[in-house]
Amino acid sequence: MGLDATVTDIEDWATGRANTTPETTTVTTTVRLIGTLVCRTAEESAVVTDQLPRHVALTRAEPGCDEFEVTPTEDPLVWRVEERFSDADAFRAHQARVAASAWGQATAGIERRYQISGRE
């Protein structure tokens, strides 16, 4: 009995009417990252503007990437970041790719203020 079990399946199992026991099911947790990328100078902001299109395209193509948005705010030095990955493994793979990427190297000194939920 997996995640697609019906109410009847569960009731039958719980009352002993079923001939099987439920399978062990691994529940995956979506990982969400929300926050800001804060540039100190117009030069850093220009780096973000230059590098961002490729970074977004590569990230959205990653397995497990459900949402990835980096948008400018009213402050030209601040960018809003919203990410959602299907599970912790997909998020870790994304982080590893970013660390080794042109984006990761070009923006390494730019402040990130992120809140991450769901990672294990």
TrEMBL record:
Residues 46-103 form the ABM domain. It comes from the Bacteria. Keywords: Monooxygenase, Oxidoreductase. The keyword Acyltransferase does not apply. It holds the Pfam family ABM. One of its GO terms (molecular function) is monooxygenase activity. This is Antibiotic biosynthesis monooxygenase. It comes from Microlunatus elymi.
